[in-house]
Design a protein that fits this description.
By secondary structure, the protein is α/β, with parallel strands linked by helices. The protein contains eight helices and seven strands, in the order βαβαβαβαβαβαααβ. Helix 5 links the parallel strand 5 and strand 6. It starts with 5 loop residues before the first strand and ends in a 9-residue tail after the last strand. It binds nicotinamide-adenine-dinucleotide. The site of nicotinamide-adenine-dinucleotide (NAD) has 28 residues, from helix 1, strand 2 and helix 6.
Length: 264
């Protein structure tokens, strides 16, 4: 009998860390539904449809879904589309997120930026997870052998202070709490929830501050003395869903080259 591939939802799958997660999951036997606010079927160079091509080359199926995760009305439809195509959901990776459009000091941060960042980074994933978790509970009731997982991509910003992007730090602290609380609530259903905290990862999000971080990394800010790459996060996701951490729900994994180490 051919072994059925597992199905993952990855938000923000069109580029950066989301793309890295998709590629590693496909290599490890997953089909993927990639959700992104940018949906351009004609663009095969960058975005969801470039990722689809890569995933298919590696032998996986990829369903591209255009949706804004901060729009709570889109969540039910996202789940329905995935179930219609794959019939199951084994993993949700809450990855989509944004930085503030402008870095403003905490003494000047605007309510508009606060609301935008919180709504995409924290409120959206909180309610998408609620929708998916309820589906996973029903799925598990039909088949006790299933071991579904949920992973939140938070950040070292959940605990590191950046006064010029306070709303981002707040949103990541909220995501971090959501991961812990969902891990607690879903443990009785056999649904494990983890949190990954990336450090400084080379993507479009950090491109604007590349020179600043090149210098800081060379000076020792990151003990492992290099940028992180999307595949570093993808590999951590794959490891968490490999079964090796099944007695560790609620675990927090740092993918930051050792930035979590306090040193003298
Ligand atoms: N790059 C880093 O150094 C770093 C560090 C720690 C945490 N993170 C987190 O990792 C995640 C991915 O970051 P990245 O660096 O790959 O960023 P990125 O900007 O390169 O990619 C983010 C993706 O999310 C999509 N997206 C944005 N808003 C969306 C929405 N409302 N609905 C659906 N999709 C949306 C974008 O279109 C894009 O494809 C984010 O949550 C970010 O906060 C990044």
């Amino acid at each position: 009998m051919v072994k059925q591939r597992k199905c993952a939802i990855v938000t923000g799958a069109g580029q950066g860390i989301g793309r890295g997660i998709v590629i590693e999951l496909v290599k490890n036997g997953f089909d993927v539904a990639g959700v992104d606010i940018i949906y351009q079927p004609d663009n095969k160079e960058k975005g969801l449809f470039e990722v689809k091509q890569q995933a298919e080359k590696l032998g996986g199926s990829f369903l591209a879904i255009g949706a804004d995760i901060s729009d709570l009305n889109s969540h039910k439809k996202i789940v329905e589309q995935i179930v219609a195509k794959f019939g199951r959901i084994n993993l949700l990776v809450n990855n989509a997120g944004v930085a503030p459009r402008q870095r403003l000091d905490i003494l000047e941060t605007t309510a508009e930026s606060y609301d935008r960042v919180m709504s995409i980074n924290a409120r959206g994933p909180f309610f998408l997870t609620q929708q998916v978790a309820n589906f996973m509970i029903q799925q598990k009731q039909k088949d006790q052998n299933l071991m579904p997982y949920i992973i939140f991509i938070s950040s070292i910003s959940a605990y590191v202070s950046s006064p010029s992007r306070a709303e981002y730090c707040l949103s990541k602290a909220a995501v971090s709490a959501a991961a812990t609380i969902y891990a607690d609530r879903l443990a009785e259903f056999g649904i494990n929830v983890y949190q990954i905290r990336p450090g400084i990862i080379l993507t479009d999000m950090t491109a604007v501050v590349k020179q600043k971080y090149d210098k800081l990394i060379a000076e020792g800010l990151v003990p492992q003395k290099r940028w992180g790459y999307p595949e570093d996060v993808g590999k951590a996701v794959s490891a968490l869903v490999s079964g090796g951490f099944d007695y560790s729900t609620g675990a927090v994994i740092e993918v930051s080259g050792g930035m979590n180490i306090h040193h003298l």
